[in-house]
Design goal:
This protein is an alpha+beta fold. It has a single domain, classed as Adenine-n6-DNA-methyltransferase TaqI, Chain A, domain 2, CATH 3.90.220.20. It contains five helices and nine strands; from the N terminus they run E-H-E-E-E-E-E-E-E-H-H-E-H-H. The protein is globular and about 50 Å long. The protein starts with 9 loop residues before the first strand and ends in a 7-residue tail after the last helix. Helices cover 33% and strands 22% of the residues.
């Protein structure tokens, strides 16, 4: 993280802006048929008829695929191998998901057998916190890049020419600069 932040940005630790709450056990044998996704640390692992989290949100792998970041746009049930994210202040959810991906939580694995993420160590990760309107502009820009990647993939799948790899490399290269404020998205 750069020592010089743009005006209005703040240096923060993840623990200053989010809480990682424990998911809750939901064995397959007690799940009831429904359309609520059940998330493990690797994504959707099943379905249930009621959510633990009654809105969309971000799921972070706690055990197994430790540090993985998944976004649910709908209410969901995070199982006990995950954390779900609660913002401590107003944050753009897409900006936050990008920030969590960029924080490389998967590198904080400290288990010797099954990979595990210690939330206290995650809380110490430093981030650059832009004002909410700038978070929204960054998120919109990243969504437009993701849309271009999706369009390019569809073109390639249909037999056309395209270079999805180049777009992915561009996104990765921009992430650090966007999330640190070295590159700004115009208002």
């Amino acid at each position: 993280m750069s020592s010089e932040l743009p005006e209005g940005w703040q240096a923060a630790k993840l623990g200053d802006i989010i809480a990682l709450e424990y998911g809750r056990s939901l064995p397959e044998k007690v799940r009831r048929p429904g359309d609520v996704p059940v998330y493990g640390s690797n994504g959707i692992v099943g379905w249930h008829d009621e959510p633990l989290v009654h809105s969309g949100g971000i799921i972070v792998g706690r055990k197994g695929t430790a540090g993985s970041v998944t976004v649910s746009s709908d209410p969901f049930w995070p199982i006990d191998t995950t954390y779900f994210v609660k913002a401590r202040e107003p944050l753009d959810p897409d900006w936050l998901a990008a920030t969590l991906h960029h924080s490389r939580l998967n590198d904080l694995n400290e288990a010797t057998g099954v990979p595990g993420l210690n939330r206290d160590k995650a809380y110490l990760q430093r981030v650059s916190l832009p004002p909410l309107d700038e978070q929204q502009r960054i998120a919109e820009f990243l969504r437009s890049v993701d849309d271009a990647i999706g369009t390019n993939r569809a073109l390639v799948d249909a037999g056309g020419n395209g270079d999805t790899g180049a777009l992915l490399k561009l996104k990765v290269a921009l992430m650090s600069d966007l999330l640190s404020g070295r590159v700004r998205v115009p208002a």
